[in-house]
Structure prediction request, 324 residues.
Amino acid sequence: MTETVGEFYVGIVAKAVATVAEILQHQGNADLASVLHAARPWVEETGLDQWEVTHHTLSLEVPVEIYAGLESRIDEAESTVLAKLKTVLRSYRDHVLDAVVIGPTLDPPMTSVDSLPANAADHIWESGMLRLFISHVATHKAAVGALKAHLRVIGVSGFVAHQDISPSLEWQAEIELALRTTQAALALLTPDFHESKWTDQEMGAAFARGVLLIPVDLGVTPYGFMGKFQAFKGALDQPDALADAIVAILTKRPATAAAMREGLVAALQIANTYKTARKVASLLAATPRDFSEAQITRIRAAVADNNQVSDATGVPRMLEAITG
Prediction:
């Protein structure tokens, strides 16, 4: 696959982080240099301005023990790194780095999850798909239900309390179980989000577990502990586009990339329309090529066994780039 200009810039930023670490080391700032050496960088596009300059945010995930020693001066560290990177990258006129966010790695699972029976949450999540807790205000339940349906088509099992809790089950316990077993949490930040007695608590529980938080600006910018996470603007009346944007983040982030690849493979196997097969195949083709042999075998089986995949124009050829 041909590398795009944006992908090229992302690679340059990763190299620039290593260069800035060396510069800091030579300038006597060994502590901040060690932070950059240990960091796992990822770059996200935040928009295109009127002069066709692409803007980006750089997030640096560092081990928890390193972050703990840096937290009291995190703003100063982020400002220093951003200033150094702007200097190193000043020749790239068509791309601008606007912000650097340093945070603790979100990979380690909460130990309490390990104490749950293996099948404790099987009734909540769809097998094989990425598990996403969706926090929202009940007045928007119809739109959120539509978003959940679009996410399922592309490999994400969303938990929406008003849909997913059976009347016979105690609702608070089910919400707690979903939060204990989710792999990421989505905050739909509508103007009434903060007024709810539950939404902030849900995001607090997800934050404490260290799972990926994805705030969506639907009229409200992230606040409190969510303020450190890059939000993107969305619209509840465009659930298809919103679902695509969410999956793009889940695919890129180290904490969720593996589960999202698995979810896309599962979605391909159950695709029931040509349109769905084409969308899932294009997402798979755009995913970093780190598929397991088992996943490649399942992709081949989907082409062989599911005529919505095999007969969809262009889909088998797209998948050949993965399966060889």
The longest strand covers residues 95-104. The chain is about 50% helix and 15% strand. Confidence is low (pLDDT under 50) at residues 1-6, 107-112.
